[in-house]
Specification:
The chain is mainly β and 207 residues long. It has no helices and 17 strands. The strands form five sheets. Strands 1-2-3-4 form a four-stranded antiparallel sheet, with no helix packed on it.
Length: 207
């Protein structure tokens, strides 16, 4: 959901209960539902409700006379205190400008699965640049998920913990060069702590 216009009312399902909630931009506060009030910068005049941090919950942002204020959803329909960013005046839009949409879902490999935690991708013989896209979408503290990764039988990551690269839900792209000789690119995961997880795989010719 993306909303942007002059002062007024915005709605979004902020606590994912199937019911639209309301945020009202008045003076220098958001009024959300019946009571909570969230101070923002001076002279706010435009309000949007959209998912700004990729956690599936609607966040809020407002344009003010001297910048932009962002209030992230605490995943229960309430919000963190506003964080202000000084910028010039103008309209406000929200879009995925850095391909972080790749990092909103992942595929994890349970130890209980019958098949091994791996991908076998058919490719012509040659050299390739392989980017493995990770993000920690389940835990909010380091050390809760660790695993090894092998490309074509060679270990390229050991005790990898994606959250250490930037925190919860942060993009963690890892790029490697790999040579394919048998017509299959093998990507294997080794359990250490919890289940290995990956968001996306990107492959480019490396010749």
């Amino acid at each position: 959901m993306l909303l942007s216009c002059a002062q007024g009312l915005r709605s979004a399902d902020c606590n994912q209960n199937g019911v639209e909630d309301a945020a009202d931009l008045r003076s220098q506060n958001f009024r959300f539902s019946a009571s909570p009030s969230y101070p923002v910068g001076a002279n706010p005049w435009s309000l949007i409700a959209t998912d700004l941090d990729g956690d599936g919950k609607a966040d809020l942002a407002t344009v003010e006379g001297n910048g932009v204020s962002v209030l992230l959803n605490l995943r229960d329909g309430t919000f963190q205190s506003a964080v202000s960013y000084p910028v010039g005046g103008g309209s406000l839009i929200a879009a995925d400008l850095s391909d972080h949409g790749l990092y909103r879902t992942d595929r994890w490999f349970s130890e209980d699965e019958v098949l091994p935690p791996a991908y076998r991708l058919p490719l012509p013989r040659g050299s390739y640049l392989v980017t493995l896209h990770f993000a920690e979408l389940g835990f909010r503290a380091p050390g809760r998920r660790r695993f090894d990764v092998r490309l074509e039988g060679t270990e390229v990551l050991k005790d990898h913990d994606p959250i250490t690269k930037g925190g919860y839900a942060a993009a963690d792209p890892e790029r490697f060069r790999s040579d394919v000789e048998d017509g299959m690119l093998d990507i294997e995961f080794v359990h250490r702590v919890e289940d290995p997880a990956i968001c996306a795989i990107e492959i480019e010719r490396g010749d």
